[in-house]
Predict the 3D structure of the following.
Amino acid sequence: MRRLSSEKTDVLLVFLTTAFKPEKDVLSNWIAKVMKSGDLTPQAGQVLDIFRPDGLACSRLVLLHVGEGAVADIRKAVLAAEGLIKSAKPKALTLSFLQTPTALALRVAVTTLADATYVYTATKSKAEGRTVQNATFMLPDALSLRVEFDRAVAAVAGIELAKEWGNRPANHATPTDLAHAARDLAKLPKIKCDILGPKEVAKLGMGAFQAVAQGSDEPLRFIVLRYSGAAKSAAPVVLVGKGITFDSGGISIKPAAEMDEMKFDMCGAASVLGVFRALADLQPGINVVGLIPACENLPSGRSIKPGDVVTSMNGQTIEILNTDAEGRLVLCDSLTYSERFKPHAVVDIATLTGACVIALGAVRSGFFCADEDLSRAMVMAGESSQDLCWPMPLDDDYAEGLKTNFADLANVAGRPGGAITAAKFLQKFTGKFPWAHLDIAGTAWKSGKAKGATGRPVGLLVDYLMALDAQDQQA
Ligand code: BES
Ligand code: MN
Ligand code: ZN
């Protein structure tokens, strides 16, 4: 506590729990005083801001009550101080736990603080970016949580890259721009990148992906990222991210209201970029492949029309009954492409259905998986990162509606259970490997006043991969 009193920083944030016992130092006195006066009550999310407190070296002291210190309360407290932190414009910020937190609590403090101080600037003419240059975390037994802390910081770097690309408008985040972002990642250790264009994709026979891209003047890109942390012979995890840089719906055009939010339809792709950013920091001993089918979905004289039948890369023909169900079309060819890596597992990440938003809202991503081990690992990673997902069913009966008289498969099956029928469509391309699908339509961005990408599910994916790495080291 004495050290905290002399901590020279612009903002000193102190987490208080109900277990707090004052010692004989200046900070303790301050805390005892405000608690006694009732200016700070012992409920999670209560915040008190003190300007130039006498006897302390900080410019501002912010006391954050976190109740008994539960993870949800830590998040609540940091978010309650968000406005205050932003208006104080600190360059240096210190966040202090008086008792050693759990790994999870520390993780949530790091990620929530990053979230609360993130500022989007890319397309503003007079942008003031994030003011915080330096955030220090103080805890009694810092050494014991070093690994957790480093992982949280690496996850944040990935989350912020995902937010950045998610937030950029479609004219500043074209398929070509995404490819350049991937190229930049390949400058980092153990990462390589290949970019395929329309010609190569045609040669591969990706008829479904091509069909979506053909309505736009913006050329498609198929991005292949590789992180090599293990021997060549080690089967990789393949991450496939939906990269629709703008989804107008195509000929089955969407209504005008909120159509701008369809710039976020590449948040799956952005999450793959984010994971690779984190891998570069964490350097786990595993192999990971990232696949991003990137294109626009626009109406034009060259667009696909409802009723058109296309041939996917694995030979299955698809009747495109609704051109707005384009995500599954770009993903199915990418899933077929992933066969060549003989993967340990394939996870696709997609802002796939409005139905998933209705089913689960913004709290948990929809999770679909028929493989028990993979399913358990992913759900656990959601918990450990607090980037939550929820298991959804994959009964074959849900695929009934995908039958059609004119092709092997239709791309839509009516409104009921729309998130599940979309997953069933994808599943038809995943026979050769364990597969999981994350529908992040509700979780990848926020609407309204807080409109912006969340960077989810980078946290979940990083934890899944790091758990695999730990498992490999034991084996
Ligand atoms: N990108 C959308 C899904 C979406 C919609 C995400 C709204 C978040 C908010 C996707 O391409 C889409 O348009 N899906 C359709 C499928 C339908 C035509 C079967 C949908 O959900 O309406
Ligand atoms: Mn669509
Ligand atoms: Zn879409």
User: Anything to note?
Assistant: Residues 244, 247, 265, 326-327 surround zinc ion (ligand 3) (CB under 6 Å). The chain has a mean pLDDT of 97. The domain at 154-474 is CATH 3.40.630.10 (Aminopeptidase). The two ends are 43 Å apart (CA to CA).
